[in-house]
Design brief:
About 15% of the residues lie in helices and about 35% in strands. The model has no long low-confidence stretch (mean pLDDT about 90).
């Protein structure tokens, strides 16, 4: 019996309703259906009296979601997609992402196109696009304190009402560099259109094997975004007497104390996106972000080519 999964945003009634409809339909067609709420991939935020709290990467996968599963359907917005990949990426399950949110930058299709999309998926008429993910770890000496998978970005920044931060960043075997800023962003190509873009970083196409390091409000005209090979691991040490905050994919994280060290590397687990049509990244940039559109409004009396 073929097996399929459904991961949905339990906070959205429309996602809950559609999840049940898909479950009934695929069960009637002879599929084994496993369902899970997106909250299983939520990292959560630590408390001031509990700066470290996490679930190991390989323990987030929901029951029944394994390598025998043909694919899974995700119902929600971009946050749901990020949470879903944190759960299933170690099992190598490709995801058909359906937008029930607002922006839907990471989603493949919409609710009104869902019947046709499911038909294509169950017939295997699709491509799989692999996107790089990051493994983010927090260490104290030789002891691992915290880890998480990351599809968009890892951000470390100061707490409110504190002063500028100082970081020592080591990329691969290169000499360490010092950065003075409100924080720094380490982003994948997928995340280059998220927080990194807002902080002035470049857009990097998903097929580029690169990471980018973006200072947030740097205290130097020379501190600019750096793009480098994703084969280079990154080590970040804080040179601050006070604790900092680390957030992964805008979803959750932990406090970074002065004695902690952050290590980031490309994950062995890629995010597998089901593509019903050949990926057209520039089209998505135009539709979602307005990239490449005419920057001067044309009068209606002018005939455009």
């Amino acid at each position: 019996m073929p097996k399929v999964g459904i991961i949905y945003n339990e906070g959205k009634p429309v996602a809950c309703r559609i999840a049940q409809e898909i479950d009934d339909k695929l069960t009637a067609l002879g599929w084994e259906v496993c369902t899970a709420a997106a909250k299983g991939g939520i990292l959560g935020y630590c408390q001031s009296d509990r700066p470290i709290s996490y679930t190991p990467i390989d323990s987030l996968c929901p029951p029944g979601f394994d390598s025998q599963m043909s694919f899974a359907i995700v119902l929600g917005g971009d946050g749901t997609v990020l949470a879903a990949f944190r759960q299933v990426a170690p099992s190598g399950i490709p995801l058909l992402t359906v937008n029930t949110g607002h922006m839907g930058f990471l989603t493949e299709t919409y609710i009104n196109q869902l019947p046709e999309a499911i038909e294509l998926a169950i017939s295997g008429d699709y491509q799989v696009e692999n996107r790089a993910m990051l493994t983010v770890q927090v260490w104290e000496g030789d002891r691992l304190l915290w880890e998480a998978l990351c599809l968009n970005e890892m951000v470390i920044h100061r707490e409110p009402l504190t002063s500028m931060c100082h970081f020592e960043v080591t990329v691969g075997r290169h000499a360490p560099v010092d950065i003075a800023a409100d924080g720094i962003i380490l982003s994948t190509p997928t995340g280059s259109t998220a927080y990194s873009l807002s902080a002035g970083g470049p857009v990097v196409a998903p097929g580029v094997d690169a990471l980018q390091l973006v200072p947030i409000c740097p205290h130097s005209l020379a501190s600019r975004a750096l793009v480098f090979s994703d084969s280079e691991p990154v080590k970040i040490d804080s040179a601050n007497p006070n604790r900092l905050v680390m957030v992964v994919d805008g979803n959750g994280g932990c406090y970074i104390l002065p004695e902690f060290s952050i290590r980031v590397a490309r994950s062995p687990y890629p995010a597998k996106f089901i593509r019903l049509q050949p990926p057209e990244y520039f089209k998505i940039l135009r539709e979602k972000l307005g990239w490449g559109l005419p920057h001067i409004a044309k009068p209606t009396s002018v005939e455009l080519p």
